[in-house]
Design a protein that fits this description.
single chain, about 300 residues, alpha+beta, three-stranded antiparallel β-sheet, globular
Length: about 300
């Protein structure tokens, strides 16, 4: 007997596709049946390649330990007067020191080991010796690590010295939006549940959410399916199932949601109205009972 799903059919007595070595009927058969029932009702469901097995999850956790340590190092050393080029050097050195590889470096031509996005830069800011952090700036430092072929990805906001109450509130509310979104992250729910919670929270606080850029699957590659929106609707987008791993990284603007990409470097994204933007990013794993934060 075969179970026909969006993936290739597999016999009940065949080895399970997850690599456990157990027979399919004793391992993921009922799991796949449940996914198939959602698919037949019109839901967007994950393919098997999106589901991480325990060996892969353990390896990704090791990569994440480096990523977390890197951002901890930045937190301890960042201050007014530091250039974003210096931050790039810290990240590169600390990654290599711990046996990892900076994932952004040379990824699709990106020239640095980390993204540093200051004030009205939404994301993908390129470190430079000409960008000196000043009192009152806010900056997102987005680090991604490869260890033994496994990827981790997270980012944090930093307030440089005394920042305006408006900027500090934006940073704090953006961080809080992730906690609000996490309340909707659970197996057999939908990514849109989380997306709408974040979007509603941002709008209630007077902000807008970037539409064109979202989160993504991660772990075996830098960017995997699914794409994760934060302007989505409850009950829509992909079904969340145990073993899925993705980032939650809303980009929240103080002004309007409109953005543009730097014509000169082809990477840095800015707010159209020149008002500040903030972003925090975590990497999460869907578990049988909820979620696990892998990197932050």
């Amino acid at each position: 007997m075969f179970l026909k799903t969006m993936d290739a059919p597999i016999g009940r007595n065949d080895p399970c596709w997850c690599g456990s070595g157990a027979k399919y009927k004793k391992c993921h058969y009922e799991f796949d049946q449940k996914i198939e029932s959602f698919r037949q009702r019109g839901a967007l469901v994950p393919s098997r390649k999106m589901i991480k097995n325990p060996v892969q999850v353990a390896a990704i956790r090791e990569s994440a330990k480096i990523n977390i340590a890197i951002l901890d190092y930045v937190a301890e050393h960042i201050h007014a007067g530091v250039t974003t080029e210096e931050i790039d050097q810290w990240v590169h050195e600390q990654t290599v020191l711990r046996g990892g590889i900076p994932a952004p470096l040379n990824f699709e031509g990106f020239p640095k080991s980390v993204c540093t996005s200051v004030n009205e830069e939404v994301c993908h800011g390129i470190p430079s010796p000409d960008v000196v952090l000043r009192e009152g700036d806010i900056i997102n430092v987005d680090a991604s690590t490869i260890l033994d072929g496994y990827y981790s990805d997270s980012s944090r906001m930093f307030c440089i010295g005394e920042v305006s109450p408006e900027k500090r509130r934006l940073v704090e509310k953006t961080k809080e939006s992730i906690s609000v979104g996490l309340q909707q992250v659970k197996p057999w729910g939908f990514l849109g549940d989380m997306g709408q919670a974040i979007h509603d929270f941002a709008r209630e606080n007077g902000y807008s959410v970037v539409r064109e850029i979202g989160g993504h699957g991660v772990g075996l590659e830098f960017h995997e399916d699914p794409w994760v929106s934060y302007v989505s609707r409850r009950g829509t987008e992909m079904l969340m199932v145990p073993g899925m791993m993705f980032t939650i990284e809303p980009m929240i603007n103080m002004g309007k949601a409109d953005i543009f990409v730097d014509d000169d470097n082809g990477w840095t994204v800015y707010t159209e109205d020149g008002k500040p933007s903030a972003q925090w990013e975590i990497q999460v794993l869907i578990t049988e009972t909820g979620y696990e934060i892998i990197s932050y």
